[in-house]
# Entry
Amino acid sequence: MKRLVAALAASLAAAAAAQEAAPRWYVQVDNDFFFDTDRWYSSGVRIARVSPPAADTTEWALQQAVWSPEGKHFRPGVADRTPTAILDGRFAWHHREDGLFQTIELAAGVRGRGAQGERATRFVHHFVSAADVEWERDVKSEFAASVGATRTYVAGPIALHYGAVAGNEMTFAHGGIEWRTAGAGFSPVLRYVATPPFDTGTATPRGWGAFVGTSVRGVARNRLLDRPYEVDTARPDRKDAVARVAAGITAQQPWGAVNLALVVESREFEQQRQPQRFGSLMLHLPF
# Structure
């Protein structure tokens, strides 16, 4: 009997250890339907696989991001961005230790018609009503690539982020600060690179957490604004500095993690009618 109990306990421990060491998957969905709008940065979907938790962790992902002009309140003759999308594969390396979380991310893919932005948005709009957007002005398929790096320092409830993204479509540097409760996971909306829902340190607290923060990015390149939505309209005038405020909640449990963030961002270009708002939802599960 003792041997049976010992064998059963060992089997349960091995199963728990295997689950803990299993690769993890997460899905991230960014969309402005949280605020009942359909404009500018309007959609982002990411499916990623993360290696078992360790001080150094790797991640592979497929990501699509979609930008569009303002649909509901479009005004003819006013410069706005042309609809476009980027579809790419991504690899990220994460290093974690107490008080430090750093990420390097590489991306390569396609921008323009080959990124299937029109098809994705039309599919979604079968279920969620939205104003029509004409995609004829989207660019032909072209190569898109970038490298991004972000460091996050944690001191008590305060986290500081800084980094940069350099690519042939967008290049910018950023810095920000956030206040966090115990158990709050980090969000990519303040780090601008891949950010799986895990905390810094060796033991991730279970339960609920919350965060609020702000960041500013200095923009050196944004080719997504190079073409206007209307043929005879001047292209949008890029803003060199864009501010972002975000707040969110996280739930981390043995079965996985959920991270919801709401974002308000200042104008990306001069003719933009008002600041943009969108939500970011992440679901993270071990397999």
